[in-house]
Amino acid sequence: MFSNVEQIKIISSFNQENKKYGKIQNRVYHGFMFRIKGDAKYVFNDKTILVKEGEIIFLPKHSFYEYSTVGEGVFLYTSINFEADIVNAKPTVYRLEDYPNKNFILHHFSKTWKFANTAEKLNCISIFYNFISHLCRVESLKNKDKFNVIEPAIEYLKNKIFDPKLKIDKLHTLCGISSTYFRKIFKNVYDTSPQQYVLSNRLSHAKHIIESGDYDSLYEVAYLVGFSDPLYFSKAYKNYFGCSPSKTID
Question: Which in 3, 51, 52, 53 has the greatest CB count within 10 A?
Fold first, then answer.
C-alpha cells in the first residue's frame, strides 16, 4: 500500500488521551494512530478492527468509522495526520516492535512537530519517511514468496515503465505464469493491478516534470512518461488529479 507513496506532507500530530467514543463521518487526511496505552475498537461499514496497546492503525482519508476505548483506565495515543497519494488505501493494523525510532514517535514526535525550529521539523519529516519505509519492508516481507514469482516482471518494469512500447499484457510471460495468475499475485503484493500501477507511476512522474518546468511542451511530457497519445494522456491526467495538465502549470 505504501510502496509508491511520494510527496508526503505532514499536516498535524497530537499526543493525548482518547475520548471514550467518537464518530468520524469523512476523515480529512490520512492518519496513523499509535496506541500508547489501552486498546481501542474501530467500526467501519464492512468490518470491526481491535487495535491493541503497542499497535498502530492506518486510517485512510475520506474513511467513515466509529471508535471507542475498550475496558477501563487511561487511554493514550499519538496521531500523525498527513497528505499523500496512496493507491487502494485501506484501514490496516501494524506493530512497532522492531522499529528503531519507536520511542520518539510515541512520546516526542507530536511536541517536537508543534514547537520545533526548521531543523527539528526536517528531522521529524525524515523520521516519518523512515517509518513509511519501515512499513514498506514489513509489507514486502509478508509477500516475499509471492514477490519472488513476479520479480522478473518487476525488474523489467523498473527499466521500461516509461517506454511507450511497454506491453503490460505480456509481463506474465517474463515470469512463466498465466496472465490471470500474474495479475492475482501482483494485486496481492501491490494492492493494485499492473495497469493501474503503471498508470499511477507515469502520471505522478508527469506531474513532477510539469511542476519542475523542465520541458518544452505537454506533448513532450506525455511521451517522456510513456504515452504515445497526448489526448489520452490529458484525459488520464485529469481523471487522476482532477485537473488538466495545463491547469497544473497555472
Answer: 51
Cα 8 to Cα 88: distance, rounded to the nearest angstrom: 16
Evaluate whether residue 2 is within a structural domain: no
Provide the residue range defining the domain that includes 166.
144-249
Total tally of structural domains belonging to the chain? 2
pLDDT tens per residue across all 250 residues of the chain: 776 677 899 999 999 998 889 999 999 999 999 999 999 999 999 899 999 998 999 999 999 999 999 988 889 999 999 999 887 788 999 887 778 888 899 999 999 999 989 999 999 999 999 999 888 877 776 777 788 889 899 999 989 999 999 999 999 999 999 999 999 988 888 878 999 999 998 998 998 898 888 888 889 999 999 999 999 999 999 998 888 888 765 5
Q: What are the Cα distances from residue 26, in Å, to 10, 31, 57, 78, 134? A: 19, 13, 17, 20, 28
In a domain, 3, yes or no: no
